[in-house]
Amino acid sequence: MKPFHQHPKIVLFDHDGTVVDSETIALKSAWRLTNEVAREFPGAQHYELEDFVKSFAGKPYREILKQLYPDSLTSLNERDIDRLVAEEEKRAIERLSVEAKATEGTPQVLSYLRDDGIEYALVSNSSFQRLNACLCAAALTDYFPSEHVFSAHDSLPVPRPKPLPDIYLYAVKCLDAEVSDCVAIEDSISGVKAAVAAGIGQIIGYVGGTHISEDERSSRADALESAGAHQVIERMEDLIGLLSATPV
Predict the structure, then answer these.
(1) Is the pLDDT of residue 245 over 90?
(2) Which residues does 162 contact at the CB level (< 8 Å), separation at least 6?
(3) Which of 25, 69, 116, 120 could make an SS bond with 11 (beta carbons 3.0 to 4.6 A apart)?
(4) Is 246 helix (H, G, I), strand (E, B) or coil?
């Protein structure tokens, strides 16, 4: 691992699959709903659960539906999509509020940042309701005050999810920082692309979530680097080493 060239002003964490190990829980729920949807709207490409998780981790359900139904304007109209997206959100929150847990090592990393005076925030595609359910279930609410939680779904005037850079740019502006002084931690290609498009100074890929199998971690790391991550970590605790090795 290469230490950062300069001390970061702010560490910006993705949420799903990065801070909270929520991807598999949410995607299982989405997969079940998708199979129900296929009975109402036949014609979608079928995925087994494992392939569904691999293919759609980090993507909003609206985008998943449109990939499953490439002719969605005829198979599914926008009203159908809105209804199904709301249903997916409801079901996911029900499961996440019970099952969500912090990714291994994340509480220790957050404690280190807080004790060392390094500012950090959460930058996510998920809604505030979903984020709050996860953070509460994972016992992480004390680490993330509301003013340091940013949602591409709710914080912006119009939802603009990653890979669009809007939520990163908005968070950095609210935190009165420069994008070049920030570090982003992301587990998905769309998240890395959003950080790249925003001009984040250092982008760290993370492949330690349970939605990424051990066999897949090497190829996922390569994919994250190809998307623009400067380096990739498998253990969240490795972030401490990167930060502690950084000259002030």
Answers:
(1) no
(2) 58, 125, 152, 188, 190, 191, 193, 194
(3) 120
(4) coil
**What does the block give as tokens for 149?**
């939680």
As given in the structure block, the two tokens for residue 41 are: 């709207």
For 220-229, b/e burial (b = at least 16 CB within 10 A) is bbebbeebbb
Burial classification of residue 219, based on how many CB atoms lie within 10 Å of its CB (0-12 exposed, 13-18 middle, 19 or more buried): exposed
User: How does 82-102 read in b/e, with b if 16+ C-beta sit within 10 Å?
Assistant: eebbebbbebbbebbeebbbb
User: Does residue 186 contact residue 14 with C-beta atoms inside 8 Å?
Assistant: yes
Q: What is the pLDDT of residues 73-110, one digit of tens each?
A: 667 888 999 999 999 999 999 999 999 999 999 999 99
Overall size of the chain counted in residues: 248
Helix (H, G, I), strand (E, B) or coil at 102: strand
Distance CA 103, CA 112 (A): 15
Cβ atoms within 10 Å of 7's Cβ, excluding its own: 12
Answer for the pair 212, 192: CB distance below 8 angstroms, yes or no: no
pTM for this structure?
Answer: 0.88
